[in-house]
Amino acid sequence: MAGKYKSVYFCSNCGGESSKWLGKCPACGEWNTFVEEVVKKESTAQAAAKGKSPMSLVETNGKSKPTLIENVETTDEVRYDTACGEFNRVLGGGLVPGSMVLIGGEPGIGKSTLVLQVVLNIVGKKTLYVSGEESLKQLKMRAERLGTYNNKQCFFVSENSLEEIFVHIKNVEPELVIIDSIQTISTEAVESSPGSVSQVRECAASILRYAKESNVPVLVIGHITKDGTIAGPKILEHIVDTVLQFEGDQHYMYRILRAIKNRFGSTSEIGIFEMMGSGLREVTNPSEMLLSEHTQNLSGTAIGAMMEGVRPFLIEVQSLVSTAAYGTPQRSATGYDTRRLNMLLAVLEKRVGFKLAQKDVFLNIAGGIRVNDPALDLAIISSVLSSNMDIPLDPHTCLAGEVGLSGEIRPVNRIEQRIMEAEKLGFKRIIIPNFKNLDLKGTKIKVETANTVADAFKMLLG
Ligand code: TYD
Ligand code: MG
Question: Deepest in the core among 45, 82, 406, 429, taking most CB within 10 A?
Answer without folding.
Answer: 82
